């Protein structure tokens, strides 16, 4: 009996000291830890310019969020080489489309979340300016249907709403449900921004 109890306590201790990433793998889920297991990849080097984009504003401010998408069609030019169209959306303002050169996208594969439908980027003053990158998909509708046609839209500058399940997600507090039925928080991706390089790489 004592040996069995000791083994149970030891197993519990291992779980308590296991990182969130390992817990994701252990439980096989997508939202057990802080970050999802879905794939997202995007690099952008602002040393090449494009500092007037909504993305640059979101990265260098707090409580400013933007949805970014890229046109997968390559536009070839004899002077520019390959270029892409970066689209940025913010609440209450017109969408911005800008041609971005391969140099500023650093010539790496781009996967903007589930089926490439877009990422939500911004910093929260509630979390000391922590950088958040979320998937644009409603996580609860996606989990229920395994289908990627549940795009979130801004209900105001700091919240996103799903027009299918009518849940509202708060961007300032980690993407949790703030209105509607309880459920999973937004899918979050690993990201960093330093020395003018914005990098999303998930999983690492």
Comma- or semicolon-separated keywords:
204 residues; alpha+beta; four-stranded antiparallel sheet; 5 helices; disordered N terminus
Overall body shape: globular
Number of strands: 13
Unreliable stretches: 1-32, 76-80
Give helix and strand order, one letter per element, not per position: HHEHEEEEHEEHEEEEEE
Measured by DSSP, the beta-strand proportion falls in 25-35%
Reported for the largest beta sheet, the result is:
6 strands, antiparallel
What can you see in these coordinates?
This protein is of the alpha+beta class. It is built from 5 helices and 13 strands. It has helices at 2-16, 20-27, 54-59, 102-105, 139-145, and strands at residues 40-45, 65-70, 75-77, 81-89, 96-101, 119-124, 130-135, 153-156, 159-161, 168-170, 177-179, 191-194, 197-202. The strands form 3 sheets. Strands 2, 3, 4, 5, 6 and 7 form a 6-stranded antiparallel sheet that branches. The radius of gyration is 19 Å and the shape is globular. The relative contact order is 0.17. Mean pLDDT is 82; it is low at 1-32 and 76-80.
SSE diagram, text form:
Blueprint: H1 2-16, H2 20-27, E1 40-45, H3 54-59, E2 65-70, E3 75-77, E4 81-89, E5 96-101, H4 102-105, E6 119-124, E7 130-135, H5 139-145, E8 153-156, E9 159-161, E10 168-170, E11 177-179, E12 191-194, E13 197-202
Antiparallel strand pairs: 1-13, 2-4, 2-6, 3-4, 4-5, 6-7, 8-9, 9-10, 10-11, 12-13
